[in-house]
Amino acid sequence: MMAHVSHGAHGTRGKHHLANSDNNANHAVYRGYFTQNNPDTEFIMQFIQSQIDTFTKKQSSSKNFATTVLVHTCDLRIAYAKSNISGERNEFVTRSALFGAGMHQLMESLISGKFLSTDETHEYIQQKYPNFEFIVEQKFRININTLQLSSEDDEYAIVLKPDLIIYDKVANEHYLVDWKTFYGNIKFFKPKFEDRRQMLIYSTLLNKIGFNITKIFLVYFLVQRMKIVPFILQFSDKDHEDMLNELQKRIQVFHTARQTKTLPLKHVGDWCKRCPFKKLCQNNVSPFEIQFKSD
Ligand code: SF4
Question: Which fold is adopted by the domain 60-282?
Fold first, then answer.
């Protein structure tokens, strides 16, 4: 009996009978059958989609403010995200959750040496970069008023997780590195406003807890070109001071709005098209009046 090979490669329609004749009986590898729209391929698609849905709607139990939420300048969007309301799944959310996470895992694995043996990695790093120490994906929770390390339960803390901090032991300086992915037209490519704000938040807070961040890198992976493009960012002391003031103000605004059950201010702009809370916002739904949806 000839073996059948089925796969669900979307875009290929119908049933193909490629090799099931005695003429091919001597082939070591049969080409087999492949079909697309049948109950088995549907089952596989449903399974994958449900995993994607679960992943993109994953909620955190932490009471801190995520930096990736505070990069937005709209108080209402921050309040929706902070109130753990499930936003709509849109192509931007799915894409950044999936490809962003994939890219981060890949880079983390490369740097921490998961693709090499531990010995090879240590030897490689020691030989090539004897003056450096690498801190990969470490989480920091920092209270915005005391500027001290804090806990998951702190509602005035910001959680940050820089992709990589490189410590130059000789110069006693730290370099901050973050990976990003870019999918669109290369002609319009430049570091995103939110990405630059994220780096400003990181450097502002990390310097307050004892780091000495002197260089900041945003490293973009241009998906359509399969190309890596690094940028170096510079911020002034004034940028850091302004960001600290903004964060303290925004977090207080959120708590006051929640206590008084008032709708936080909207900041409407081009970014609204990517906002997962657009429908709630258009209907003036208060983030403090609706229940957290867990699905
Ligand atoms: S759609 Fe725009 S104004 Fe409304 S919550 Fe989102 S970012 Fe804010």
Answer: Lambda Exonuclease; Chain A (3.90.320)
